[in-house]
Amino acid sequence: MKIIPRRNSFLSLLDDDFFRDFYVSPFQGFSKSVVMKTDIIENEDSYVLEMDLPSVNKEDVKISLENGYLTVSVNKDHSEEEKDDKKKYIRRERVVENASRSFYVGDIKRSDIKAKYKDATLRITIPKEETIKETEKYIEIE
């Protein structure tokens, strides 16, 4: 006898990830379906990564290159302190949003990578590695 999971009600259909992706609460932080969506474009001499980063400031984005991996990280902290002596807060809630995405880019120099952030889109240009074509196909046997 096998146990087969079943959905017994219409409401359980709404519990599917498909429906969850349409609505992201501001209290949930980043959702994988909303942030860091990336288009990769191949040009003749480079690759271009275009990442949509809605409601993110340039200062919240960090790009690093280590061991051939390019990592884009976002750390958005909504907990800026507001000074107002007239208000007595009983409770204050803020959101800290973190996300990162890594791409293998090979042996590229950090100075060869260009990045630009404009209109909530991060655009990273990475030069293509030059491939060395071998002239001989065979390996010499000693």
Classification by helices and strands: mainly beta
The overall average pLDDT, rounded, is 74
What kind of assembly state do the chains in view correspond to? single chain
How many β-strand runs? 7
Q: What kind of sheet is the major sheet?
A: 4 strands, antiparallel
| Element-by-element helix/strand order | HHEEEEEEE
**How many alpha or pi helices?**
2
**What are the low-pLDDT stretches, counting only 5+ consecutive residues below 50?**
1-24, 30-34
CATH class of the domain at 30-79 and 94-127 equals: Mainly Beta
Strand content: 25-35%
Helix content: under 10%
Which geometry do the CA atoms define? elongated
Distance, first to last CA: 63 Å
**CATH-derived architecture of the domain at 30-79 and 94-127:** Sandwich
CATH topology of the domain at 30-79 and 94-127: Immunoglobulin-like
The radius of gyration computed from the alpha-carbon positions, rounded to a whole number of angstroms, is: 23 Å
| Widest sheet, order of strands | 1-2-7-6
At a glance:
This protein is mostly beta strands. It contains 2 helices and 7 strands. The chain has helices at residues 10-13, 17-20, and strands at 37-42, 46-52, 61-66, 69-77, 96-104, 114-118, 121-127.
